[in-house]
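Risk register update: the risk that structure generation would not scale has been downgraded. Supporting records follow, first protein first.
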Amino acid sequence: MAPHFYMIRHGKTLANLCNKFAGRTDEPLSDQGCEQIRGLVPQLAELDIQVIYAGPLCRTMQTAEIVSNNKIPIYKADGFIDIDLPHWDGLSKDEIRTSFGAEYPTWLATPELFHVDGCEDLHQVQKRAVEQVADITRLHESGNILLVTHLIVARCLILHKSGQPISMFRGISVDNGGVTEL
């Protein structure tokens, strides 16, 4: 029997509330995000989660800690870190458009073609996230496992699991605190 995976996107942050690209900034959950995740705890308790793997940034680890409530083991999973676009980190969408206007339309319209030297693209994100899930699968013969990650990683995992191409990236909706069964 193989493990069964559930995935949750971290709770809301100030960047989410201010329409900023958080990327790999180590931003914590906002007060609203903490409350949002606390509100999910009863629903998640019904899933009988036995272990949590979370991306290493503050907002994913904080989400995992709230869900765990010191009752479920948590492990850092570097493969679930957000996309590496360092020149966008912390900028609003308008600031990105102004400073990197040539890149942003591709990111919005055809994200599967988006590539900037020195940065990750969606294919790379998907590859490392899928490899992380495979590594976790090798460690657990069965049980319910919760993955805590970011929007971009979550979309990439959902596309892989459903056999859809990266070109469908924008068609996948994953809300902050949204729980998905993989």
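Supporting record for the second protein:
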Amino acid sequence: MRLTAEAPQDDHSISMLAANFLVLLSAGPAVAALALVYAARWGSASLMQGVWGLLEPKVLLLAVLPGVLAHELIHAAAWAFFAHRPLNAIQLGVRWRSVSPYAHPREPMPVAAYRAGAVMPAIVLGLGPSLAAIALGAPRLMAWGLVFVLAAGGDFVVLWLIRRVPAGRYVQDHPTRAGCQVLAPE
């Protein structure tokens, strides 16, 4: 299925600026809950040690910045896998005006595949490391996980925007806005 001018669409997107404002609202509660669980088990001093450790310039440069790129690569790999598309069907790049990397599926895909690809970075880079840190008492890993749950806030906003899109529908990722267009059923 290709997006064409003849294919009626239902827009489920918002501006990137609006999505960035909604990040704290969408991811903030999860970050707060995970931080509270960690602090209850290992102490708030341990959590703060992890946060300050992650902010060390060398750690920030060698761990967090590549993590931002990994976030987009995980989107790309997950969309390719779940939509049964080749990896080169997902465009990777950087929007230099906002200095933000992106992954953009070039072709429509089932909404279930789109949702799975949208949530995977939050699970792999955020939730997984956070849960491991809670179990192990690893402060820097906890800080990493919290940063990447927060980084997935825009993805949570997109998932909210498409929450009522029925299974089986096809969506086309919006090339410049956060979200997608839902294609009319054929």
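Residues 42 and 85 are 43 Å apart (CA to CA). On this basis the risk owner (M.S.) recommends closing the item.
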